[in-house]
Design brief:
258 residues; 1 helix; Metal Binding Protein, Guanine Nucleotide Exchange Factor, Chain A; 2 domains; mainly beta
Amino acid sequence: MADESVRYPGAIVPAGHVEPVPRRIRGTVGGRVVFDTRRALYVWEWPPYPQFSIPVGDLADGVLIDEGHTDMRGAGPARRHSLKVGSDVREGAAWVWEDAAPEPLHGTVRFEWEALDSWYEEDEQVFVHPRSPYSRVDALRSSSSVRVEVDGTVLADAPYCVKVFETGLPTRYYLDRTHVDWTRLRRSDTVTRCPYKGTTSGYWSFDSAAATHEDIAWGYDFPTAAIDRVAGMVAFYNEHVGLYVDGTPLPRPSRPAA
C-alpha cells in the first residue's frame, strides 16, 4: 500500500476507481450477519473516500429485492434493491452494479452505510464510511505551547500538546485537560463519529459577553489505536478560536472538520 499511496498523495482518488480491500469486511442487521467477505472492493463514487462493494455470493443472510429503479452512481449505473433480513425490510438499502459499470464491480452490491446496523473491518467496528487507504492519521507528542483565545478570553494555555495530522485536514492540537479553563466552557449533547478517530466523548461551547460559540472544543476518551495518545485530551476548532502555537497566531482554516 505504501507504493499505491504515491498515486494519490492528496488522498483525492478519482471517482470510479476500484481496487481490492485487503481486509475481512462484515455487516450486520438486527444482530444477524448480512455479509462476511474477504473479497470486498473499494469503489470511489466521489473522490474523498470510498465505499465497500460486496460480492453478492458472499451474502450470509438476507435477500435483495429489486425495486425496479436504475440510477447513475459515481462509478456507473446500478439498480436499487431493498434488503430483507428476517421480517426486517430496509428499502433503498443496496445498489447492484449493472453491466456498464466497471468490470470488477460486476456481481457486487454497494450497501448504503446507514442501512446496516454495524460494519466491521476485521474485528473492529468502523463508523460513518470506510477508511480510505490513501488517508493517514498521525498523533505526535510536541513541545509546542498552545494558547486558545475567544473574544479576548483565554480558554486554554498549555506548555505542550499532541498534534494530530490527518490527510486533507488542518493540524489539530490536543491539550491536557488540566490546561483548560473549564469554568468558561459549557458541555453540549453533540456526539460525532469519525472512521479514523472514533466516537467523541464530549463537545464544549463558550458563551462570551459578545457571542455564543457552540461546539468549539471536543475530546475522545476512547479513540482508535491510531491516535490513542489523545485519549482524555481536548482540541479546539482552529476555525472558530484564536490559536497561538509557540506564541505565533495561526491563520484560521476556511472549512471546519474534526
